[in-house]
Amino acid sequence: MSTTFKHAPGFVSGDRPKIVTSRFEFADSFTIERYLATDGYKGLRAALTRPASEIHDEVKSATVLGRGGAGFPAGTKWGLTPQQVWPRYLVVNGDESEPGTYKDRLLMERDPHQLIEGCLIACYAAGLSQCFLYIRGEMALAQERVATALNDAYAAGYVGKNILGSKFSVDIVLHWGAGAYVVGEETALIESLEGNRGMPRLKPPFFPAVNGLYGQPTIVNNVETLANLPWLLCNGVAAYTAIGTKTSPGTRMVAVSGHVKRPGVFEIINGITTFRDLIFGEEFCGGIKNDNKLKAFVPGGGSAPWFTADQLDLPFEASQVGPAGSMLGSGAVIVMDETTDIPAAALTLTHFYAHESCGKCTPCREGGTWLERIMRRIVDGDGTDADLQQLLEVGAMICPGDFPHAANEKLGLTAVPFPYKMTTICFVGPSAFAPVHSALTLFRSEFESRVTKRVTIPVTSVSSVKTVATAGVHS
Amino acid sequence: MSRLSEKNLVIAKEIIARYPRQKSALIPLLHLAQEQSGYISKDAMVHLGELVGVTSAEVYGTASFYEMFRFEPIGKYLINICGTMSCALMGAEELMHHAEKRLGVKAGGTTQDGMFTLAHAECQAACTEAPCLQVNYRYRLRVTPADIDNLIDDLQTGKLSDEIPAHGVLSKVRQVIPADRAVGAIAPELVTESPVWLNGKAAL
Ligand SMILES: Cc1cc2nc3c(=O)[nH]c(=O)nc-3n(C[C@H](O)[C@H](O)[C@H](O)COP(=O)(O)O)c2cc1C
Ligand code: SF4
Ligand code: FES
């Protein structure tokens, strides 16, 4: 049975295991009183009665996958820090801003103590001596809830010096951003936390676990990833891995938005729940709005190549979604029904990534802008057929080679697996191209019916770069 | 004249002390300055530079990267209407048109009475509740054109002044780390040993 709560807008509870949303039913779930009355800080206490290395091993063997986008196991990441280099830091990524994604904000607003306890467990296990909890600037309520929770937790002895009277001491500092999507990228997050413009750093050498905040080993983890730890410590590895699959254990938070009957945020069983369950299942979204037909869906946040009905039976399992041509990303499914204007929908995403480019790499800064201008021209009815080729050419400057896409039986397409090659430092550049490429590959006729035949000077007399540049100027 | 007030200076110093390097406090301090005046003035940037030990140009260099910081006064209420994909699919454009008509300004503009600034915003992490908007970063979900009218009415008559503070104020609660509980920030070069709890034994 599905239940919603006025105090947790968007969240839909069901008869499924709950690891991170177990307190969402309570209107006062964010208070320390409620938290303590519902096993709060029990995981921390359990952890502190064992050596740190044992706790690290436990998180490793539970395979707690990162929920921020890349899906890298947390325990393994903690082990990548160089031996005997101190201090090490924890930076919590609460910058949630990937289009379609809505889960970390809920976790911070509804259960801030769970996140704080998760941070403490991570710091204990991995020997991290200070924690910075970076919340997206635009999230005033999340900042308020986490600030209150931290104040209460400090006063009660759960954070700070000699936690619970033990040898374990760590400060958690609340930090907040000021509006820039790219700051969610971990090295940009670190730059921002150092008080700089939030531009991503080159990896190598700047792998955070080796060379992060102030040049020190730094673990960057997503809010949801850390929120899993208190339950894991209370209930043990066996209980955690009993949910989900071997490669994708536990649950994960997924937001389904767009043209569905009942959009919502669900804690689903990892690795097993399929896109069909989510979009059509009665306990989830209950089908497409107005009983329309499904046209396409974004499976893992705005950066992910699109799927169509052909991929509905894929489960939330990276090892299956990757070869099928996309990624699970940040747990965000955006559904488009048959009435959707595909080029216009793709344009909203291309605009987003072009707008959010930090400007450090030319292919992203220039290419993203070109893609947006060409797309806008097409959507406005001013495009020509040459524009379609130009979109692909500009895209190839950002991502050379075959770009991943889904198989499609009707179109006779076979899948090109994820990931892609890229000429940029981070994924913002490729993300501007992903929606364009998906839309153009799966729905080319919608573009063709909108553009006019180009009457122009023969291409042989103009270099391709010039053609693109001219196109930009005319838009 | 908008250097930090004495009260805010105390808060600023507390914030700076939490970081191993002072410059890390810059974004929180810029928010403090914006909270004080509704925007960030040149004087404020000079002051913040003095506080964290960088030039005012460096302060502006950082500040100008981030969309939330404003360098000129704007409306008391900043209405950000989300236009990214999930909201676009659910009618964001219509909302924006309605708001533009109602306020008599285009997106990006401020009403003559200085009450409202209307802006186009990107995904606000409320995609399942589309279309949505934020007023001074407080959410309104599944918004209809009629909701926009009511919202503007309520803001004009002061009905929402408890819930929605003037532009610049984010969290109404500040983190306070009690001196007797704080571990304290230490410059990384002064730390040479492993944390004491990594001694192979349980901490408790
Ligand atoms: C452009 C870009 C934006 C990102 N935004 C976020 C974000 O908002 N939140 C997040 O947790 N991770 C985000 N990530 C992923 C982070 O770089 C990083 O992988 C993640 O925070 C690690 O945490 P996890 O291992 O717990 O998933 C983003 C990555 C890129 C390339
Ligand atoms: S890909 Fe774009 S956002 Fe990422 S570092 Fe390069 S220019 Fe910046
Ligand atoms: S797209 Fe509008 S909140 Fe995410």
TrEMBL record, chain A:
Pfam family, one: Complex1_51K
Coiled coil: none
Single GO term (MF): metal ion binding
Stretches that traverse the bilayer: none
Keywords: 4Fe-4S, Iron, Iron-sulfur, Metal-binding
InterPro entries xrefs: NADH-UbQ_OxRdtase_51kDa_CS, Nuo51_FMN-bd, Nuo51_FMN-bd_sf, Nuop51_4Fe4S-bd, Nuop51_4Fe4S-bd_sf
Signal keyword on record: no
Similarity-based family: Belongs to the complex I 51 kDa subunit family.
UniProt name for this protein: Unannotated protein
From TrEMBL, chain B:
Ubl conjugation recorded as keyword: no
Example of a GO MF term: NADH dehydrogenase activity
Cofactor(s) in the UniProt record: [2Fe-2S] cluster
Gene3D superfamilies on file: Glutaredoxin, NADH-quinone oxidoreductase subunit E
Keywords, alphabetical: 2Fe-2S, Iron, Iron-sulfur, Metal-binding
UniProt-listed InterPro entries: NuoE-like (IPR002023), NuoE_dom (IPR042128), NuoE_N (IPR041921), Thioredoxin-like_sf (IPR036249)
Pfam families for the chain: 2Fe-2S_thioredx
Similarity remark: Belongs to the complex I 24 kDa subunit family.
NCBIfam families: nuoE_fam
PANTHER family reported in the protein's UniProt record: NADH DEHYDROGENASE [UBIQUINONE] FLAVOPROTEIN 2, MITOCHONDRIAL, NADH DEHYDROGENASE UBIQUINONE FLAVOPROTEIN 2, MITOCHONDRIAL
Name the UniProt record assigns to this protein: Unannotated protein
